[in-house]
Design goal:
Structural class: alpha/beta
Distance between the termini: 68 Å
Number of strands: 8
Shape: globular
Strand order of the largest sheet: 1-2-4-3-5-6-7-8
Number of helices: 12
Length: about 325
């Protein structure tokens, strides 16, 4: 073999190594999903001139079930997002998780069509807000029309999806609750449109997001809206994913465990029981969570003025 050919194949091998290393290691999530006994399928959801692909998981129950629209992180509809959908289905909920990158990938593909994480992050960051809202409406409408659905609708989002979950609550008025995992809030002017309680899950070591909580709490209270944020001391951004990984620290794992338990408990409560609940952020002592290293960063393109006007140190004194 010639020297040039040897060099070419060596470079090609390095390329594959670096490409593999750049992707999130989520084999554990994929393996867990493949072991699940629950029915799952991909469904095309058409609205207007657009069709968005959605991952749908059904619970194994004998009665009609509530629907959760799950909004993925800035990393797209990853194996972890699908595994989280399956975990929620295991609790008795139909979960509809749209791939909001549908059509944005190479050759018109979605999340799986991109070569690496950086490309996915760039693409999600550039999604038009109106298109995202329309896709989420299509997912919610589809879920509510299912014969096995009981008409109850929730939305839950993580990271970038956490901000979209909060924003969706300002738009969609048939929600029973919105679950916001370390996501940025909508503009104050939009909060008056919220009709469902909003539950927040925030990381103590995530000043970029958690610094918005005090101002959001005040704005939601002024608007007469129910907002129940909990800050998990020591946890890093993305702890719901990082806390499930095989190499998760004990602290990040505890943050995941506590947050998942809280979410399941809140889902089981009638929405009316919490409709008027307004409070300042609870600390880790109220809902214990101690996590260590921050997880992989993810971003929301619509961080508003809250983060610029709040002293993060004040949060830690609450």
């Amino acid at each position: 073999m010639s020297r040039s050919a040897t060099g070419f194949f060596a470079a090609l091998s390095l390329l594959f190594v670096f490409a593999a290393a750049s992707l999130p290691a989520q084999d554990w999530a994929k393996a867990a999903l493949e072991k699940s006994p629950r029915h799952r399928e991909y469904v095309p959801l058409k609205h207007g001139d657009r069709t968005v692909q959605a991952f749908v998981v059904y619970p194994e129950v004998s009665h009609k079930a509530p629907v959760i629209v799950l909004i993925h992180e800035i990393f797209g509809l990853s194996d972890w997002a699908k595994e989280m959908a399956d975990e929620l289905a295991a609790q008795g909920y139909i979960v509809v998780a749209p791939d909001l990158l549908t059509g944005a990938g190479p050759n018109g593909g979605g999340t799986d069509a991109f070569a690496g994480q950086d490309q996915v992050t760039r693409a999600v960051s550039g999604l038009p807000a109106d298109q995202v809202t329309a896709d989420l409406d299509a997912a919610a409408d589809y879920g509510k029309r299912l014969p096995s659905a009981d008409g109850t609708l929730y939305v839950a989002g993580f990271c970038w999806g956490g901000g979209k979950s909060f924003a969706f609550a300002t738009h969609r008025h048939d929600l029973s609750a919105a679950f916001v995992f370390y996501g940025t809030p909508p503009p104050d002017a939009d909060l008056k449109n919220i009709t469902a309680p909003v539950y927040g899950f925030y990381a103590g070591n995530d000043a970029r997001i958690t610094a918005t909580v005090p101002a959001t709490t005040a704005a939601m209270k002024a608007a007469g809206k129910a907002y129940d944020p909990v800050i998990y001391d020591g946890a890093g951004h993305g702890f719901m994913r990082a806390g499930q990984a095989p190499d998760a620290s004990d602290a990040n794992k505890k943050a995941y465990d506590d947050s998942f338990k809280r979410m399941v408990t809140l889902l089981a409560k009638p929405a009316a029981a919490t409709a008027n609940r307004l409070q300042m952020p609870a600390r880790g002592n109220a809902t214990p969570a101690k996590a260590a290293a921050a997880a992989a960063d993810c971003h929301d393109e619509n961080q508003n003025a809250h983060s610029a006007t709040v002293d993060f140190a004040a949060i830690m004194k609450m």
